[in-house]
Amino acid sequence: MVVRERLLAGFHIGDSYVEPLSGKVSRPGGDLHLPLKAMETLLCLAEHPRFLVSHDELLRSVWGDESGGHEKLSHAIGEIRKALDDHPAHPRFVRTIPRRGYCLLVEPVPAASAAAPAAENLKREPQPARALGFYGELKRRGVIDTALGYLVLGWVLIQVADVTFDQLTLPPWAATFVTYLVIVGFPIALMLAWFVELTPKGAVIDIDPDARPERAPLSKTYKAILGALALASLGVFVYDRYVGLPGAALQAADFSLEPQIVVDPNSIAVLPFLNIGDGDEGRIFSEGLADDVINRLTRVPGLRVSSRGDSFSLPPNSASQDVRRRLRVAYYLEGSVRVLGDTLRVVVQLIDSATGFHIVSRSFDRELEDFFSVQDEVTRLTVANLRVALPPAMEAPIEIASDNANIDAYVLYRLGMEELYKPATRETIDAALEAFMRSLSLDPDYAAAHAGMCLTYAAGYRVANDAAYIDAAERSCATALSLNANLDVVHNALGELYSETGRYDAAEAAFERALAINESSVASLIGLGDVYHRQQRLADAESKLNQAIGLQPGNWDAYNALGGFLFGSGRYEEAALQYREVVSLDARNMNGWNNLGACLTLAGRFAEAAVAYERSIRIQPVQQAYSNVGILHYYLGEIDEAVAALERAVELAPNDYINWSNLGDVLSYSATPERAVEAFMRAEELAERRLQVNIRDADTIVGLAWIKAMLDKFEDAAQLAHGALEAAPGNPHVHYINALILMRIGDRAAALETLETAVEMGYPRAMIAAEPHLTDLRSESRFQELIRVESH
Question: Among 137, 294, 422, 560, which residue carries the largest CB count within 10 Å?
């Protein structure tokens, strides 16, 4: 405790000097006045540094009234933070303890203390240059500004030289001269900024920094840069004159400056085919033809085929040198598709990427109903003309399961798969189901469309939490399997269904069967990785998901799946990197932004998380984002905002037990805590319904355990928590929730031990420090040590 009389004489907090009797706060940036009540509040906190001072105690000491006045207290705390240049999200001086009070995080230093700097030193402007430290001296002399300005200008000069000098037919050494000029000039610019000072009498050597007048930063910066370029030009010219730049020697030796591109001679890419005409039908045909040819070519032994994601990153009819440089393939296939009434015209060209010359060019004029035969002909034509580059043993026939359908049914099937590829919402699920149903109305025996229905129902269950979707998925998958058991999409659908219902061994077998049919199926690899994760075969799961990304680096779904795996393993920073890839590939992927926000929240980067959630909601207001925003407000102590966000999440997804459980947590700290029981009871009902579909779902098991604990059903909670730990021993979130349950039960020692385990597995200390349910542990030295480590 600090004696109040010593504080009244003035005290230091960080780099601020507080004078209570005059109400003045002095900082290097200037003086501020702190109102009387705010100053009294600061004095109360300063008398008890690093200890919680309750709302009631502050109200009684400053306003003489324990009841009401919370708004006045919050306003006073805000004025203190403004005077000390503090921020509630990242407090350096004053921390809010939700629903309890405030704490001054640093020890105030009275003015009479020998450790206190003289108050007048805080008011001197400008400070002596030698007191600034090396970095401050760099800024004062303009070295930092000069370095940044020079790097930007230098980069622009090199880019301009690279782009324009060839077109202006300037000699090859000109670009080399500019590069050397920029490199040599950089240290000269820094030395000019450090040693030379501009005065009204001209440039002088700066040897007395304490006596230096205020400079004009931009004036000195650009003059230092221009002077450096002038001196560097002279130096490089002299060097070239008497020694010679390396570019000339390379030219004389006839060396090529072009990077050598290593290309596998047995490699090919299929570029997106150009759609000539308007409408979805032609687009579906052009994309479908390229997709299916890629799938067929991947079955040719020894032939390396560029993935769809990479190939489709180039536009139709790209230049051969761009294809060779970007995709590193020896050959590529391109073409165009035109639909005229009932007639289909397809033109394809097989091109040598090294020369740009056509190996073969062929056109096909067929009836629309012959579209699938055109796919086969294009594939055979391509392989036949590549055999000059392939070993004789690679002439095995291409075997591929066929599922040729009514052409209109095929177009609708492709539209359904497009909807299914988008982030899952009620709207995309309904659109996909409509497309598949229309496809089956034209061709009831179309196995791929039945498989698409199964995939959509499985995805719909994850969105709606309605078991009727699972029943419908079972029927669709059974029909697809009976119609054609040789399609990888059928076994992928079965794998998704089995995985969603906890039949993990059957799901693994289904995905492996799909990979036996098509070893390049990214969907199969993603599904298998998810099953391995659920089985706690973590190394196998990560390997399969990375393999999926390797096959299709342009597929956001593969990065999203790997992000989910890393998130569930407590590797939140790594997961955030994968979700950044998702939104870089699809900037309007609201689930990608939401998932990125969740990673940033758990990493303790709340401000960045809020921005990611805002982007997600701006794209489309889905319940996951509102739910996560509510939790973010909850950890920041903003209970009213948290309740509003979670009520919106419940409104959008009334059958999601997580939303109701989160709402219950927040309501228990609100002005109406009695509403929390109702929310938890609804959450309990929905979670139990979900476990009826998949009794092995570790996330739902631990979620239900927490709900039971909050309803004081402690025996059920302990039993469920034990089951969750058995199902997912490698998930730090499961251990963290188990610790919260142990706190509810009253076993503080076991709770602390479990928290330590969660932290060792990657659970962030910042979240533990902010968790209101752990308030009673804050006095424990073991707990303080656990959260103190985070600052290191």
Answer: 560
